[in-house]
Amino acid sequence: MNVAKSSFTELPTIDISDLASDSLAQRQAVADTIGKAAREVGFFYITGHGIAPELIAGIRTAAKRLFALPMDQKMQYYIGHSRSHKGYVPEGEEIYGSGKPDHKEAFDIGFQAADDHPFVLAGTPLIGANEWPQLPEFQSRVLAYYEAVFALGHRLFDAFALALGLPEGYFKAMVTCPPSKLRLIHYPFDASAEDVPGIGAHTDYECFTLLLADQPGLEVLNEDSAWIDAPPAKSAAGEEAFVINIGDMLEVLSAGTFVATAHRVRKVPQERYSFPLFFACDYHTLIRPLPSFLTAGEASDYQELSIGEHMWSQALQTYRYLREKVNKGELQLPERARGTNTFGHLKKQAQQKTVTNP
């Protein structure tokens, strides 16, 4: 495994406009830059992404209108009522590795799968209809943003393939009806929010994440276990940058060469909105390390994983309503479920604690 981590103090910025070039050499050059950032940091900003400002403004408007509703109206769309794990997530619903509830509220939507899709008919977890609040233009604005950023995710997945030495379209057949989730997240104003967790330290379950946020708060863990600020950024032309980070599944594919870097959100006094889209392959896709990234004795660290099973098992261990169903025996963790904090720097920290406190 060729690992080249760095004790970074800021995130690199990559102009990806050449991913739209007709020249494979130009696309490869961008991919190589992305690969370097994925190896050394696991996080980076992108500009030249082509997401229209109108789409960004539209989802912000939709989110503000939704979260301004009274709680009883928002709870009509509670995620615990959904058959496919979508809808409104109240504050305190999610509990990460620290055991402390998160101080935020969210609304989750997913890929628009038809009711007669085989995955839906089979009752596949995470796949199915979205919950849509009865708010003017909410559905159209959120879907327009999802579709544009999802298409951007396909371009980035092609670039990751090139960066890993694979054919450019290597992953395309794996993304037909994925459990790729878009979250609208709201952190309410809190004047006393100093040094309070907003989202606890974690890695993202999927392949990679495309994030847009409007206020500081995101922090990324570097190789020296120091938390590095990753505030919102813009290009010289004023284009809002997206933050891209490597998820668990790309770490598995590359046997740890691409790192699923741990991150968290500190609770800042400002009201904050963020919009992460978690890009995944289809539920039943099996992910295993590519042979070119393995050396003797390393295969045991990255066993074959089903993307969907991994995502579902992580949700079962994170969301309060799902944890309760597991505790009651109404749901079971998949046989190959991994615990939380088992990737990236969180995995290393857990191993160090085990050695220190046997």
From TrEMBL:
Annotated GO MF terms: metal ion binding; oxidoreductase activity
Keyword match Iron: yes
Record domain Fe2OG dioxygenase: where: 178-281
Keywords for the protein's UniProt record, in alphabetical order: Iron, Metal-binding, Oxidoreductase
Region entry Disordered, spans: 337-358
InterPro entries: DIOX_N, IPNS-like_FE2OG_OXY, IPNS-like_sf, Oxoglu/Fe-dep_dioxygenase_dom
Record-linked Pfam families: 2OG-FeII_Oxy, DIOX_N
Keyword Manganese belongs to the record: no
Annotated family: Belongs to the iron/ascorbate-dependent oxidoreductase family.
Protein name stated in the entry: Isopenicillin N synthase-like dioxygenase
